[in-house]
Amino acid sequence: MKEIVGTWRLIRTAARNDAGESMHPPYGSKPRGLVVFYSDKRMMSVLCDGRSELPPEAGAREYNSYCGNYEFDGKTLTTRVDASASQDRVGGEQVRNVRFDGEHMVLTQKPRLWRGVMQHRELVWERIADAPAN
Predict the structure, then answer these.
(1) Which segments of the chain have a pLDDT < 70?
(2) Domain hosting residue 39, numbered range
(3) Which of 17, 29, 38, 121 has the highest local Cβ count within 10 Å?
């Protein structure tokens, strides 16, 4: 089983609809994000649209951050959210499917409604450092 403990940088995002057609990538064409998984089973994540200017048709800039205790069984990552920029996430669970593509960690989640269309998201991360000491 690959270890997720460490500091990871978001390098790529992708999205598709139920028919498999490409959709607007999560967090825009220049996504930025960091996630840290600590050895004591705490994590924190922040993701944003990294473009300096948004085109008028893009709408609101996507941003997400949360933290909590996590469990990882080698395939499924479950975080019990105890703080978040989106208050509706607090007290709930964020469940991600995890696979490794070489040294990259790929996170997916169950499809979600985005602008009226079911969206399948994929976030690709690269490890950039060990996790800071607890």
Answers:
(1) 1-2, 55-59, 134
(2) 6-129
(3) 121
